[in-house]
Structures are given as C-alpha cells and as structure tokens.
Write a structure and sequence with these properties.
alpha+beta, 27% strand, 7-stranded antiparallel sheet
Length: 319
Amino acid sequence: MAPPMTQALPALPAVDEHHVNRRRYPDGVVFMDGQYLPMSEAKISVLDWGFLHSDATYDTVHVWNGRFFRLDLHLDRFFGGMERLRMKLPYDRENIASILNNCVALSGHRSAYVEMICTRGSSPTFSRDPRQAENRFIAFAVPFGSVANKEQLERGLHVAISETVRIPPKSVDPAIKNYHWLDLVKGLFDAYDMGAETALILDTNGHIAEGPGFNVFVVKDGSLRTPAFGVLPGITRRTVFDLCAEIGLSATAVDVSCAEIKAADEVFITSTAGGIMPVTRIDDTAIANGLVGSITRRLMDLYWQKHDEPAWSTAIVYP
C-alpha cells in the first residue's frame, strides 16, 4: 500500500525589520521620546496603556496669527489632570511650554492646533500594575481645524440631541480631559442618522450635557446659561464667562433641559477647535428666527479680537 500523501504547509511570512506606513497625515511636527519628527513618524506602542485602556490625559491649545491663545489655562488643566491621574513626567511647565513652541515653530504654521498628551505608558514586563508603567509625553502641532466650517459659521450649525448618556462624573472625572469618547461618538452617529451636523448628548439626569469636544450655551432674554453637571469645564467656555463679565452680560452654569435649549433666543457651542460657533437648528426646531443672533455675533467678534492681546495670548518664537 502506498504511504498517505502529506500536504506541504505554507511557508511563514517574513518578519519585516521596519514598519511601512502608507497612510497620509496632515503637515506638522511631533515631539516624542526627546525627538522632533514629522507627523508621519509619530508612533505609539500597542502596549501603551493610553492605547489599550484609554489611560491618558491631554490638552489642546490653538495658535492664531502666530500666538498661543490662553496657553497658561491649558497648561494648568493639563498638569491638574496628570496630578489627579497620578502621572509624572520629566518635564516641568516651562519645558512643556518650550516644546509646544518648538513644535509650532518647526512646523512653520501661523495658525495651528497643538496637543499635549501624557499616557500611562507601559512597563518592560507588561505588568498589570499601573504604578510600574513609565509615563509618556507626546506633543504635536498641525494646521488649525474647526468644528464648524466657514459656511456653518455664517448660517449656524444644525445639531441633534442624542439620547446617549455621558459617562457619569463619579465614574470618570470630566474635569480631567480624556479620550473616553465612545458615548460622544455614538451621539455623533445618532446625529448623522437624523441629518444633523453634530450632536449634543445628555447627562445622567436627562439634561443637556455637551458634544464631541465642545460645550454649549443658551441665550434667553439677554442672559446666558450653560450646563453645569458632568461636563468638561472647557477653556473656551471659561473665556465666554470672562467676556460676559467684561461687557456686562449675565452668564451662569446650571442645568439646561432639552425643552429650554429649543426655546432659546440663541444657542452657540464653544471649543478650542473653532472658538464660539453659532447653532441655528436643533433636531427639527429652528432657534428663534433661524439666524445667528446678535449676542452670539458680538461674543464671536470679541473672542477673536482677544487673540492679539498680550494678556490673553503668547507669541510663538519662530526661527
């Protein structure tokens, strides 16, 4: 009897010495591991807890006309988040400010979106103990981008309210800027399904919370209100309070209901990525007459004027 036929096993693929990345990236400069690199060379280990567990904090500051806007406030929040998450870096505040400046200066951008990140990092032994991880710092500068484009800034954004609930503050402290965005991303897809351009989601009490990367304000009878519970206290949100104090407008942080926001005289959202941006439709409801309101426009104009004032901004040192 002939011996049984054996099928040859396919050969194992070769292990490449280097990763080849064919994706495209925005023009910019990143700092990591003591090096300044083009964005296409920025790489993070798949073993980093920032990737595996979203164990990271970050902050973003923008540059306009060659000046950081409210950099000190962003650094305050970044260092506060690291302290509460028990993270430590070999860089102090002045070091990080200098690194951010260098990223922008080396990129050559006069208007930029600048991010600073601290991840939990990883341990050489893949330990499950976060105390054994070596925390990692990353910073980058890319061209400035806005939540709203030019057309949307002129006619106002169309927003939908998703029934998705924001992560409770007893679970994840919203004052620590973080990458726990699955609730916000779900809200975005809900908004797209409803034909809107972006989303607002709810807090655990059914009130309006915030959107993907932005806070929201309502204007009624000349007074401003913004959600107080379970939201990130954004730097642009704070800037609105500062501007209102300067021009004599009342602004308070309180619960905001879904009915209240639809009955507002004006609505706008706030973000480092775009500043103060008008909203003229929520779900199927036009806000007032469906046009950008006068208080919103006044605050928008004043917000951008502040970008040239030394008390509100910091000049980039370019080569």
